[in-house]
Model the fold of this input.
Amino acid sequence: MTKAQTSSLRLRDVLSILFIISIGVAFSIYVVQYPQDRIVERFISYSKIINAILQHLYIVAISSALALLTSVPLGIILTRPRFKKYSTKVLTVVNIGQTIPSLAIVALFVGFLGIGSKTAILALWIYSLLPILNNTLVGILSVEPSVIEAARGMGMPTKRILYKIELPLALPIIIAGIRTAVTINIGTAILAAFVGGGGLGDLIISGNNVSRWQILMLGATLPALMAILADIVFGVVERRTII
Amino acid sequence: MLEFAISRWQTILKMTIDHFTIVVIAMIISIIAGVAVGVLITYKKSWANVILNVANILMTIPSLALFSILIPIMGIGRAPAIAGLVLYTQLPIVRNVYTGIVNIDPSIIEAANGMGLSKAKIMYKIKLPLAFPVIMAGIRTAAVMGIGIGAIAAYIGAGGLGEYIFQGINRGNDRMILIGAIMVSVITIIIDRGLGMVQRRFEI
Done:
């Protein structure tokens, strides 16, 4: 890719990021400034919106970070020669795990841990582990064997092959997994509200309960915009890591 | 757990059938719309990018958010649930129809052109059959997603197994949650396997 192309791409990304943020801000200001009636006026304030966003981000950030810290090492271990024979089996299990609906996972954890944001974080952690683990395995396994052989022929120790060859080559795929995981997490974190975890889902539930479309729409559009934003940002990172 | 399931089997069966019906209706609409859009954008390449981007954004939107956005517009019940499912399952179908058709060896189409086949005939007789495995894979992905999201659609009054799970959460009844989750997974696996069989059957 030439320099001009990358810079124009970046401009487009920056513009769309700004556009998305401004839609979110504009809609929040609109709802706070022009509430449809007294109920909305009393219910919604800037601090409440910001609080909900922060809570949402907190759940997403912690669960995604935990997922990243566990699944990448796990993926690396599973692709080492000693455990390699298990990696295809693990992939099958992971693929089946991904078909379990998010609602079911979140709900199941309520049974073990009761309600609260801890439950939500744990459920999201387990759920977002799967795409990252999947992509780490696929990414490392799809590194061409001849490349590794060449490195070995040059006298590289196995550890260095992992850090200098396998991981950098697998990185775009791993980042793609993280991108999927974070995007899904932002959406699934809405469900956290059902198990008392707070976040933007609270606005959806309250909005639905008092049937005020402004609260409902605020609770729905903000996470949607957040998900699109995360998708764009990680898309940029993904493109930059491609060698 | 088993006793609970046996004593409630009628409700569970009804909710499973409800769930299945919603997803099947949504999938039929989604397949018709998705294949039509996918075929159309292979003729107009400039639109393809726009449509695929829009579908991509639609899929990034969290399902519960999409359903909630539909409430003020369509109210609650089955209709908005099906509409949400159709919107949500468009991307895999449209994308696979498009890539499936675009990636066909151009020499095959040239040969058909040389034989004097009309544009429509090339589409029916050559392009669609050759792209079928890819299209079917897209439909499978969409169906698996649709069943999972169908559980969330219960929040806007679509009924189905999601309702069982939500009731379980509200009542603090783990068994209901577990049965709901297991049944959703069972339907998912059955539909995935079934569509896989159809795919292999009709593959050229």
